[in-house]
Amino acid sequence: MKINKTELKKKANPATRAFNRESYFTDIKFVLNTKPVKITTKIDTGATYTVIGLENKGLIRFKDKIMKSSMRGIAYDASGTELKLYGYIVENFRLTDEITLDKIKLFFSEDIGNKALLGMDILSLFDFQYLKEKRQNYGTFWINNYDEALKELQVRRLNKDIDYIDPILIAAIDDTRENQ
Prior knowledge:
It is a single chain. Helices cover 20% and strands 38% of the residues. The chain contains 4 helices and 10 strands, in the order E-E-E-E-H-E-E-E-E-H-E-E-H-H. It has a 6-stranded mixed barrel. The longest helix is centred in the last third of the chain and has 15 residues, at 146-160. It is globular. The mean pLDDT is 88.
């Protein structure tokens, strides 16, 4: 059986404009209120949620609308500081050239400024891996068998009778199944 895979293309750290092996950044794209947005995010396997700072250049004009969202919550960063989260459904979320989700709920926060994290809520929807490359000082994040994962996501969304992908709802269902 052939395994198809797609790469989360490595980008430079937006703050330092440098590449290093301690962190891995990639671009995500989505449509917010009919406007295309591109954000460079840090891949953070220790982050429960994907959280995008509302001070990002492409989001400032949508800040008030996002903050009025009825989907609110809180999370805690690595130091235990509380972050206010605003869930908002975006369209045409493009993770890689091969992976685009038509509608997905993302989290936004003004508490992290212009930073953005791609967390486990989205990463765990897929079979991902990090491979250290011998010819480079850093490795590559890959998503394997993405076509199967995309089909499964579509079925799960239809079974829940919602028109968007809710990564947190999917994780809760998976956790319940595993603990039975």
